[in-house]
Amino acid sequence: PYKTMRGFTLIEVLLALVVFSLIAAVSWSALGPAGDGFLMLKESRVKLEEQQWIGKQLRRDVNYLSKSEDKKVSTVRLNNDSRGSLAFDELQLLVRDPMYPGLSLVRYILDEETKVLKREAKSAWSRTHVEAISWDLAEVNSFNVEVFHPGSGWKPAWNEPPTSKLLPLAFRVTVQDSRGEMSWNFPVFIKP
Q1: Whole-structure pTM over 0.70, yes or no?
Q2: Which of 138, 161, 166, 190 stands the most exposed, by the fewest C-beta atoms within 10 Å?
């Protein structure tokens, strides 16, 4: 007896390809926005982590705030630069970081062109031509710092002379970025 071999015709193969193509197109259009949502979620998480990193770094520096025996170096210097709802403050702290020998001058400044908050650190007694170690903390639109002045409350500037024994009792730092606003309060634990 003769056996016939049964296979697929060209029409059946083409019909199967059309059906699979339609399923793939419908799946792609349904899952495409989900992929965009994951990208937006990732970007939001990165921004939140950057904000938290700013807070951790500031808290660390305020915890290591130190007075100097050299009366020419201020423990805290805060310059206020506000323009409407945006602030471009500059904060300088004298810090005794256990990872580095001696005292360091740490400066937080917002670069107005790039909108990047920078932390710069160098030895308090380094020569003028020595460049500070600098790194970018995060993209922010505004960097606002206030100090709690003993007896008169929150102030936007601190310009006590280096010989003064007066220190702020706390710092309040507020940053604004594309996610919104985040604020921290840091108490000062060193004695004047």
Answers
A1: yes
A2: 161
